[in-house]
Amino acid sequence: MKKILIVEANYYNEITRMLVLAAKNELKKRKYSVSLLNVPGILEIPVAIKRNIQKFDAFVAIGCVIKGKTPHFDFICKSSFDTILNLSIKYEKIIGNGIITALNKKQALERCGKKKSNKPNKGLEAAKAVLSILSSGPKKI
Q: Which candidate in 3, 28, 72, 115 is catalytic?
């Protein structure tokens, strides 16, 4: 059975718990073994993944960053996303990105399903991306 680790940056817990729930439900529905690790913010997600890279078949990164009045948002998002991508490539591990980057809390609430919207749950999207890669292989064309 494939093992998947969800790494949740729970700074915005009300938002991220909805993302985790959607991702976990989708993965369990498909009969994967799912574990959860909480970290304080999205900058800690890559470190948590790196520490567990050999123990799991795939990862789902969950978090939320809401833009403030300083460039902090841009630096945190870019460095975290780049590092997650680099880990995925270096270790050949699937890492679904379920980190919401929002300009305001309303957008974040829409992307986690807490506020009615036609936007999909970002945690569910990340889990489905992981499942897609885990279940697909090269096809003869």
A: 72
